[in-house]
Task: structure prediction
Amino acid sequence: MYERFFGLVDAPFRLTPDPRYFFLSPKHREALAHLRLGLTEPGGFVCITGDIGTGKTTLLRTFFEGLGPEVAIAYVFNPSLSAEELLQRIARELGVAAASGTQADLTDALNVHLLAERKAGRLSVVVIDEAQAVSIEVLEQLRLLSNLETSTEKLLRLVLVGQPQLAALLVDPALAQLNQRITLRWHLGPLTAEETAAYVRHRLSVASGGKVTELFTRPALRLVHRLSRGVPRLVNMIAHRALLVAYVARRQRVSAGAVLRAYREIGTVPLRRWSPARPVGWAAAVATVVLAVVTLGVPRLERRLPAALPDGSPAAPVAREAPPTFPAPPTRAPSSRAAREGARSPLPCPRAARCSGDRRASTHAEGLAGSAPSVPG
Result:
């Protein structure tokens, strides 16, 4: 749709594993070198793992294209096969004449065929894609096929390609013998920011015959890497949609705004939500949970502590904080009415108190005088 507008002759970001668009990043170059080296190893197997969308299938297609007629390939991409079906598939892919019968008959026919091929100077390679989904029984059958050998080398090269779960599967004790025979291993990781920018320019160059490479601005390329996390498949999805956004807006270059809009438009795909404020929100939530656990967990710990002592001795009393003291409330000033009534009440007079005391003393003296006997004159 937008190819002619941007000067392209092909869609640069399609999701098919086209070897023409294979980008040789340092990681992919090393993985391709491991595959090629596996052809010359007389007795070792190759294991390539990688995250989803990192270009494993495109890597294999590029590897196949570089092989000459002296190499026969049995490419198995259906991991749901049984052990017998796998054996039949390998025999048919390698051109074994009698590709039927029991497993023993197939194994004998395959051995005869491999000996003839090796005598003629040709190699036979079995490549298992999506190997992380293969059952242990099927992998054990592959190990048995590796026993087809001469006194100097294996007659069958084996390549296992899958997601990171494959490495964990090979650690199973039941596959110890197969795991020990794998001598070449490599893991495909995501692209760096610089590699992502080079990847986008490389695909634009291939799609335009080398004429167009700078359709994306630098901020747009940085945002593509940030949103895709360097996974090539996600880079293709976002870049393709961003070109559509720029085409509809009649923009000759793709800006960061177009990339962000493209990312939002493909939100139905399970991609990581990008929000600058999200880390802050998560930090606040985590802090709230930790505070609640600490607050509710301390009383429970105090109750369980005596029962948890190893010697059964009573626990020391837990020091508790004294209850908080609060200042006494201020005394209210007397109301104006009470103040007026207090002002009108007479104050005791010192002189009146003295006069009252004299009267009480004289009365007491008269009483004493009346009670005394009279003396005759």
Observations:
- DSSP finds 15 helices and five strands in the chain.
- The CA atoms of residues 48 and 161 lie 5 Å apart.
- The domain at 192-265 is CATH 1.10.8.60 (Helicase, Ruva Protein; domain 3).
- The first strand starts at residue 45 and ends at 50.
